[in-house]
Amino acid sequence: MSIYFSLFFLTFLLTFFFKEIAIKRNNLDIPNERSLHTIPVPRNGGFSIVIIFLSCLLFFYFNSLTSIEVIKTILPASFLIALVGYLDDLYDISPLVRLLFHFFSAFLVLCFMGGLPKIIIFDFELNLIPGNFIIGLLIIVWVTNLFNFMDGINGLAGSQVVVNNLIVGLISIIYFGLDNFVLISFSLAAICSGFLIWNFPNAKVFLGDVGSSFLGFLSGTFFLLYGHQHEDLFWIWLIMFGVFIVDSTYTLIIRAFNKKKVYIAHRLHAYQKATVILNSHSRVTLIIIAINLVFLTPISIFVAMNLIDGFTGVCLAYLPLLIIAMRLKAGQE
Question: Alpha-carbon distance 250 to 177, whole Å?
Answer without folding.
Answer: 35
